[in-house]
């Protein structure tokens, strides 16, 4: 098993664990409220989707013909970006934000997204190139 596969599998499972934790938090909130806050819902949904994505990307690594170190970098970028995404949503919830884009001054989550997005983009581009080369 390649290093990139191990990174994606471990990261994906940890993201799913984070999603279950935030789901538990959401259940606790829903005991006393009609609806869960937006950012708490996002802090549950993002890692749930991203964790599943990391596990699916293992197939891209298996198909890719790129150097293992480059694939490892891509996997690390993808897992780190997904972790930042879920964490920033939970932070937004605990800060009581309703809209991170409208809030002034911008909260930490706004800037975390500006870091996370390029990381995920670069990681995904590396995987896409690796898969296209294999065709």
Which strand-content bin applies to the residues? under 5%
Instruction: Report the uncertain regions.
Output: none
- What class do helices, strands and sheet pairing give? mainly alpha
Termini Cα gap: 21 Å
- Average pLDDT number: 94
Helices and strands, in order, run as HHHH
Overall radius of gyration: 16 Å
Q: Please, how many domains?
A: 1
**Tally of alpha and pi helices:** 4
Largest sheet geometry: none
Outline: elongated
- What oligomeric state is this? single chain
Secondary structure: helix percent? over 70%
Number of strands: 0
What would you say this structure looks like, in words?
The chain is an all-alpha fold and about 140 residues long. It has helices spanning about 5-30, 40-65, 70-95, 110-135. It has one domain (about 5-135). About 80% of the residues lie in helices and about 0% in strands. The model has no long low-confidence stretch (mean pLDDT about 95).
Give descriptors for this structure.
single chain; 135 residues; mainly alpha; 4 helices; elongated
Q: What's the topology here?
A:
Layout: H1 3-30, H2 38-63, H3 68-94, H4 108-134
Helix pairs in contact: 1-2, 1-3, 2-3, 2-4, 3-4
In short:
The protein has 135 residues and is an all-alpha fold.
